[in-house]
Amino acid sequence: KIDVIFMTGSAGSLQDDVHRKDVILVNDFAYHDAHCVSAGEYVEGQIPREPATFKLNSPEREAFKKYLGEEDVDFKEGLVVTGDTFVQSEEQKELIKKNFPEALGVEMEGAAFAQVARHFKTPLVAMRAISDNGDANADNDFDKFVKEVGAKAAKLISDYVEKMN
């Protein structure tokens, strides 16, 4: 039995006010590349027999949010979308934003973690650090910033877990 899952990593920005090195405390995950609307009463991004988004609303997430505030960590909260493609063009970003205009970031595994956590009734606390702008420079930016932002996010979670014990 797992009490809580902490997940961290990087994401590309989907919004003009979300910049490299920003931290996102995820409150929802969704798949941006699931297209099942013709399979029933599903919305874009929804997998059959699953919710349209995977909400991360647990006491564990709220406690971690409080910790971030106590540590004066500047963070944003919002939706992060998941897909099987590394987003590296404005065209890709605009297509995602057409279906998910409020999404702050895009990455490649978060919704899958959230889906599994939901099935096991295990709280998921997810934090993403922005490594790139999801544009033509994404490949270069990702390589340059991913280790730095990943280490920042991992340290926050590690320090929190140590304080919990």
Task: List the topology elements.
Elements lengths: L4 E9 L9 E9 L22 E2 L3 H12 L4 E8 L7 H10 L5 E3 L2 H10 L4 E9 L5 H27 L1
Parallel strand pairs: 1-6, 2-4, 4-5
Antiparallel strand pairs: 1-5, 2-3, 2-6
What is the makeup of the main sheet? 5 strands, mixed, barrel
What's the gyration radius in Å? 16 Å
Query: What strand order characterises the main sheet?
Result: 1-5-4-2-6
Low-confidence stretches: none
- How many separate domains make up the residues? 1
Looking at the overall shape, the CATH architecture is: 3-Layer(aba) Sandwich
For the record, the CATH class is Alpha Beta
Sequence of secondary-structure elements: EEEHEHEHEH
Strand proportion = 15-25%
Q: Averaged pLDDT, please? A: 90
- What's the total count of β strands? 6
Task: Label the overall shape.
Answer: globular
CATH topology: the name is Rossmann fold
Calculate the terminal CA-CA distance, rounded to whole Å: 17 Å
Helix content: 25-40%
Any idea what the CATH superfamily is called?
Nucleoside phosphorylase domain
- Going by helix content, strand content and strand pairing, the class is alpha/beta
Enumerate how many helices there are, as a single number: 4
Task: Describe this structure as you would to a colleague.
The chain is α/β, with parallel strands linked by helices. The chain has one domain: Nucleoside phosphorylase domain (Rossmann fold, 3-Layer(aba) Sandwich), CATH 3.40.50.1580. 36% of the residues lie in helices and 24% in strands. The protein is built from four helices and six strands; from the N terminus they run βββαβαβαβα. It has helices at residues 59-70, 90-99, 110-119, 138-164, and strands at 5-13, 23-31, 54-55, 75-82, 105-107, 124-132. The model has no long low-confidence stretch (mean pLDDT 90).
